[in-house]
Design brief:
Elements: H1 8-11, H2 18-22, E1 26-31, E2 37-46, E3 49-57, H3 66-81, E4 85-91, H4 98-103, E5 107-108, H5 116-127, E6 135-141
Parallel strand pairs: 3-4
Antiparallel strand pairs: 1-2, 2-3, 4-6, 5-6
């Protein structure tokens, strides 16, 4: 999918290792009727609340509600922790990124000066080669 929108470096990025996932605050996995993983959400805690670090759905399962179900599960996890919001960083103009999250109740974070952890994440993304003008921090209030 990322290759189709001119981001082959993202498409070619290696999937996270088990060690990477083990270090997350939580990893939620969606499975199909054969119990095969078809998507996952990796959650961290940033600035004291849930941060969706990664949401990934197997392309053949896109458009089937897997991503929405994972977003709902992330919100449930965050509510159980007592979080008032969930944050994420994503591509501003990729249809299956920021516009999709906006349809799911996420808004652009306007007050980044109050979110030093988000700022640090975005600086790290830029250091890894992601164009900061194409990135956006978003928040969903719970």
């Amino acid at each position: 999918m990322f290759r189709d929108v001119g981001l082959p470096e993202i498409a070619d990025d290696d999937p996270p290792s088990l060690d990477d996932l083990a270090g997350a605050a939580a990893v939620l996995v969606a499975v199909d009727d054969r119990d095969v993983a078809v998507g996952y959400a990796r959650i961290e805690v940033v600035d004291g609340h849930a941060h969706l670090e990664q949401l990934s759905v197997v392309p053949d399962h896109g458009g089937q509600g897997v991503g929405t179900a994972l977003l709902d599960a992330v919100a449930a996890w965050a509510r159980e922790r007592g979080d008032a919001e969930i944050t994420l960083t994503t591509f501003r103009n990729v249809a299956f990124n920021a516009p999709l999250y906006a349809k799911r109740g996420y808004d652009e974070v306007a007050d980044l000066d109050r979110a030093p952890g988000l700022v640090a994440l975005m600086v790290a993304e830029a250091a890894h080669g992601l164009d900061p003008t194409q990135r956006v921090a978003m928040r969903r209030r719970l």
